[in-house]
Amino acid sequence: MGKFDMISIGDAVLDTFLKVRDVILVPSREEHNAMLCLPYADKIPVESFEQKPAGNAANNAIGLSRFGLKTAFYSVVGNDDSGKKIIAAVKKEKVSPAYLRVEKGATTNYTVVINYNGERTQLIYRLDRSYKLPKLAKSKWVYYTAVGKNHVNLEREIVDYVKKTGARLAFNPGAYQLDRGARALKKVLRVTSVLFVNKEEAYKLVGRGGIKYLLRGLCALGPETVIVTDGSRGAYASDCKEHYKMGVFKIKVVEMTGAGDAFATGVIAALHCGKKIDVALRWGTANSTSVISYIGPQEGLLDKAGIQKMLKKYTKVKPKKM
Known about the structure:
Elements: E1 4-9, E2 13-20, E3 24-26, E4 35-37, E5 46-54, H1 56-66, E6 71-78, H2 81-92, E7 100-103, E8 110-116, E9 119-125, E10 139-144, H3 152-165, E11 168-171, H4 175-179, H5 181-184, H6 186-189, E12 192-198, H7 199-206, H8 211-220, E13 225-229, E14 235-238, E15 243-246, H9 259-272, H10 277-291, H11 304-313, E16 320-321
Parallel strand pairs: 1-6, 1-10, 2-8, 6-7, 10-11, 11-12, 12-13
Antiparallel strand pairs: 2-5, 3-4, 8-9, 13-14, 14-15, 15-16
């Protein structure tokens, strides 16, 4: 088996998207977190219904494949219809399924995404998986992202692989990884080339504070480069020397699922091509801007020509040093 540019590692999922209208938003004391309320014991009309294979690692592998990189995808799926749909989608996008494991008698992970006014609320069903990293071919990059709670041995195997092969590790932790805390994640963080977290996730790792505090705190954990996304406010990055703030490309939002994955994918594509972090931030912004113009996390993923076209359209939006 030949070398890969990227091996993406994480849980696969089948997403069902429901667009609703007759709901109520109730303010909450939590930052960025109002409450979505539906009438109890009632029938709620749904304006549209779509199903799409997804998952952070799948989104990344497919996005980079469209960009022209040779990618593979490790995950565990059930031998049900959902699992078959995910495998078919991966193959269609020219992502190698060599490391996809089918668990007999198991159900594939499933998410219901409620789309209201362009923002999404997710109902998540996840199984407890038993992960075992297969023998991987050499890869220039590894993308390690959201997995279930039984992932500690898998993480140890990823760290060993990175140390042995010299692959660059992009780490976008999910809920179960973040729940373990920064101290428990120190071995993987110390071999991470690029860390992707949103602002709330950064709080979990280093505590609350201003953006420079977050960037410096995350750098102190060991990654070479850290990126903190902040929704409609854009993103912040640091190569642990210089700090940058990146704005957003103004566009009508259709649905937000996959924006973070698309951003990370664009950044990695730029770094893979030898671009510096300031340019990579624009590539990531271009990719995420396209994705939120569609329903689902993959339809809007751009190829290289698409990213260049988007960058020309928004020439004035560039990162600034902080």
